[in-house]
Structure to design on (206 residues):
């Protein structure tokens, strides 16, 4: 989908915008995330529940533990970049003098970026020293990994829900028919499913 979008812009001789570049970068991180997610159950010999994977991640299995740390770090970056791409698209598409909309998008972008950095950095340095992430034989200490995964997911749910509501006032101010407004609203609100799934995932991890 991303490659098709970039190719269509090239055919139309339209320059790529900031949101396009960020989206491509987010896609690369997502590919890496999916690759680790596919091989992780084989390495961990665990079920799909994150809580189960965390329990197995304490075993003396360096590849498994390193995979889990990598997954968490890539997850934070992937989600943050994807949301930033959407926010940049909002700002570009809804070109307006509405300062409140632009400020709101920038504030949400800051929160998304901060959450992404916190998740990525926290995943890498959740143990002191870092080597204790994949070897319990190393002297040191770690934070509660399951709690870390749970509480970093909460801001993603909140910002995702706000991002879905953000363009609604702009859509209903467009000079189009009521049917088109409803169709556009349905298209944007279709993303609520991902927010609901995130919320279920947060509860499921508990």
């Amino acid at each position: 989908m991303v490659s098709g979008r970039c190719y269509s812009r090239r055919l139309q001789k339209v320059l790529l915008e900031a949101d396009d570049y960020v989206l491509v970068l987010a896609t690369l991180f997502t590919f890496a995330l999916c690759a680790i997610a596919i091989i992780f159950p084989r390495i961990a010999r665990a079920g799909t529940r994150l809580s189960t994977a965390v329990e197995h991640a304490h075993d003396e299995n360096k590849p498994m533990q390193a995979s889990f740390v990598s997954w968490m770090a890539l997850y934070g970056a992937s989600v943050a970049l994807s949301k930033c791409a959407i926010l940049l698209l909002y700002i570009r598409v809804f070109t307006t003098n509405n300062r409140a909309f632009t400020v709101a998008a920038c504030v949400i972008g800051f929160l998304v970026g901060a959450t992404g950095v916190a998740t990525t950095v926290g995943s890498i340095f959740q143990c002191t020293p870092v080597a204790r992430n994949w070897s319990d034989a190393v002297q040191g200490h770690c934070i509660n990994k399951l709690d870390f995964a749970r509480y970093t997911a909460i801001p993603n749910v909140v910002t995702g829900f706000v991002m879905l509501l953000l363009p609604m006032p702009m859509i209903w101010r467009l000079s189009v028919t009521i049917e088109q407004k409803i169709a556009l609203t349905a298209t944007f609100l279709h993303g609520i499913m991902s927010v609901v799934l995130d919320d279920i995932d947060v509860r499921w991890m508990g």
Notes: The first strand starts at residue 127 and ends at 128.
